[in-house]
């Protein structure tokens, strides 16, 4: 121990779980010949705000002893992986370098597994097959080996996962592609199948619901048209058959009224050749097709309605080729039908050139779209993001994650008007913002970002997906 200062720590070891705190009493003795001031800090924690010292400075005369109380906190999420650590309780004089000492304090961090799971999109509209993306995040402090399964109450749906298993280190995330399949109805109404997707990591389990809406293979309008055609064919057949029966009956009655011709004697000589037929037949009395009245089916338009516009879903947690988003700058037109950019109008000075966009992936939020500077995907992620639609939409749903406070969604409509909505999504949880254009109008573009006008705000812009229904 240093000859100028003596230090003892009680208790001499700690065992804490994430989010827990403990107090340590540090006893300091000035063993030097002059009055000294001593400060105490903790070495080995990931952030300085994870410990406090009271009092911050102790003034001691020679041979005098004083104490400080140090509170140590283990962060609640991912910063300290489960296992043993050795912290340093450093006591030193700001005026004399030799008057310092660092006492060791063993710390055991208990394992607390936390698995976060999100499903995008929540509703898929299709035929025999559908596709989802599951975003997994390890928000605990121990490594997780995650396997996925799926089920539906009727046991009619098959599930495929790619990859089937994922190894997640603390504070990391990954995306899993899910493909579902089931026989779609041949005719009739749409079938809604309730799905449950589950992630297992040992005894830890997380699950999320999803919906698979299956359209019939043959639309109801086509069935009605086919039925009408069959009915018309049956009526036409009955009419033709009845006419033939009437004609046959009249022919038989006329034959009965005519006198029976006398029998030709067999002894008479037979003609050498049969009598000749007329060289031409009289013109037919059947009217030409052009003189017939139009049939009902040709003069009445079909009543079968066109199917409604399908929803187009763009998942920003993955690349268009279904690979994980990672951390990268992207081209504005990477996603089909969209043009992406950042709005740097109210940006701080160091973000004036932040007109690019990027895909980011974090352990808490998974993959998402955000603003960025051309110099790096991790720079200036707190600016509004603008999305221009190549095909105007009549309805959209934006899926976002908020980090606290209000956000603004501005929509540019086809007639030149701008509508604005302020929303407060729950922190760190995916939330959906739906919008439907007024009758006779369509959506051309949208801009989403934090509502705080302060250019130094640190709230991230996090966009998970965009679903649009074209006009």
From TrEMBL:
This is Uncharacterized protein. It comes from Actinokineospora auranticolor. Residues 261-330 are annotated as: Disordered. Residues 297-308 have a biased composition (Low complexity). Residues 271-296 have a biased composition (Pro residues).
């Amino acid at each position: 121990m240093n000859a100028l200062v003596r230090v003892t720590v009680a208790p001499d070891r700690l065992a804490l779980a994430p989010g827990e705190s403990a107090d340590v009493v540090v006893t300091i003795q000035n063993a030097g010949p002059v009055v000294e001031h001593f400060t105490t800090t903790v070495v080995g924690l990931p952030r300085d705000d994870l410990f406090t010292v009271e009092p911050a400075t102790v003034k001691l005369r020679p041979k005098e002893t004083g104490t400080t109380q140090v509170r140590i906190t283990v962060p609640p999420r991912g910063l300290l992986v489960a296992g043993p650590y050795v912290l340093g309780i450093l006591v030193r004089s700001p005026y004399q370098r030799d008057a310092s000492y660092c006492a060791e304090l063993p710390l055991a961090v208990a394992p607390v597994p936390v698995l976060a799971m999100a499903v995008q999109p929540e509703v898929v509209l299709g035929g025999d097959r559908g596709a989802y993306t599951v975003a997994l995040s390890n928000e605990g402090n121990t490594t997780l080996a995650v396997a996925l399964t799926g089920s539906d109450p009727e046991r009619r749906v098959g599930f495929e996962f790619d990859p089937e298993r994922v190894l997640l280190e603390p504070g990391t995330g990954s995306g899993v592609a899910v493909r579902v399949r089931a026989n779609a109805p041949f005719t009739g109404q749409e079938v809604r199948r309730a799905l449950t997707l589950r992630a297992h990591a040992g005894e830890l389990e997380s699950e999320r619901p999803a919906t698979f809406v299956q359209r019939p293979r043959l639309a109801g309008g086509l069935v009605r048209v086919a039925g009408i055609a069959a009915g018309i064919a049956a009526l036409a057949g009955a009419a033709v058959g009845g006419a033939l029966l009437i004609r046959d009956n009249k022919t038989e009655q006329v034959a009965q009224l005519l006198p029976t011709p006398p029998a030709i004697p067999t002894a008479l000589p037979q003609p050498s050749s049969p009598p000749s037929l007329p060289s031409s037949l009289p013109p037919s009395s059947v009217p030409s097709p052009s003189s017939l009245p139009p049939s009902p089916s040709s003069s009445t338009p079909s009543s079968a309605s066109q199917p409604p516009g399908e929803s187009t879903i763009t998942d920003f947690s993955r690349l268009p080729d279904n690979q994980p988003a990672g951390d990268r700058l992207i081209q504005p037109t990477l996603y089909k039908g969209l043009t992406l950019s950042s709005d740097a109008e109210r940006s701080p000075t160091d973000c004036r050139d932040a007109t690019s966009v990027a895909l980011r992936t974090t352990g808490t939020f998974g993959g998402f779209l955000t603003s960025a500077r051309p110099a790096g995907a991790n720079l200036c992620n707190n600016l509004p993001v603008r999305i221009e639609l190549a095909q105007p939409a009549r309805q959209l749903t934006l899926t976002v994650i908020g980090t606290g406070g209000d956000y603004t969604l501005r929509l540019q409509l086809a007639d030149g008007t701008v509508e604005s909505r302020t929303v407060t999504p729950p922190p760190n949880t995916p939330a959906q913002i739906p919008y439907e254009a007024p009758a006779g109008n369509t959506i051309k573009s949208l801009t989403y970002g934090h509502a705080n006008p302060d250019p130094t705000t640190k709230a991230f812009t996090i966009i998970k997906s965009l679903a649009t229904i074209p006009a």
